[in-house]
């Protein structure tokens, strides 16, 4: 990273977001972590990253389903870091249910966190980016931004919405030095997924290896998980000078899922 930048990564207290935040810090960016979890563990991780990477690392526990809380987080970024130069909208949740049984509250929550929160962070970050003549926005989408699966109506709708938002923001920022892209991972091996594997194996009377191959990775031709570090490497490329002309795109990293 040729200049000191500040990166805000939502959903960065674990999984993909944590890997992206760590990669950006390693590459020299100041980082603002955002997410929920045990306060002591988050502070320990924040302090350790700040020490090992030699950059400034902040933290916001803002509720990203609340527009006022998001505004407060962005105000903090301006006051403590001078603004957000790199924005990664990564926070998200999932719920699986037939649409006729899908809880309305779950629908509202998934749309709020997976889609509407990105709208709010982008609209609040864009003035700073345009004023500086440089900004990078990365939305963590999914293979489900490009294809659908049954029983995931809210998640698929939100991720398809993220694809449209990404394209629109890419067009609006193009002549102002702002680039907006989405990363579309397939199944990524995270602590959350690891727990799902064990639970599924127990409930279905399968081995964990069979669950990985025949359940989770059924649609992923490589039959291998994407790693959080691989997603972080793609994010690092998108904010590098080599990624300057990539804009408004869906970057797949899915083992060939969408090639079906």
Secondary structure elements and pairings:
Blueprint (H helix, E strand, L loop, with lengths): L5 E4 L5 H12 L3 E5 L4 H15 L3 E4 L6 H15 L4 E4 L14 H29 L2 E6 L12 H21 L4 E8 L2 E2 L1 H14 L3 H9 L9 E2 H11 L11 E4 L7
Parallel strand pairs: 1-2, 1-4, 2-3, 4-5, 5-6, 6-9, 7-8
Helix pairs in contact: 1-8, 3-4, 4-5, 6-7
Keywords:
Rossmann fold, globular, 2 domains, 260 residues, alpha/beta, 15% strand, 9 strands, two-stranded parallel ribbon, 8 helices, seven-stranded parallel β-sheet
Can you walk through the features of this model?
The protein folds into 2 domains: 215 residues, NAD(P)-binding Rossmann-like Domain (Rossmann fold, 3-Layer(aba) Sandwich); 37 residues, no CATH class. 48% of the residues lie in helices and 15% in strands. It has 8 helices and 9 strands. The protein has a 7-stranded parallel β-sheet with strand order 3-2-1-4-5-6-9, sandwiched between helices. Strands 7-8 form a two-stranded parallel ribbon. The mean pLDDT is 96.
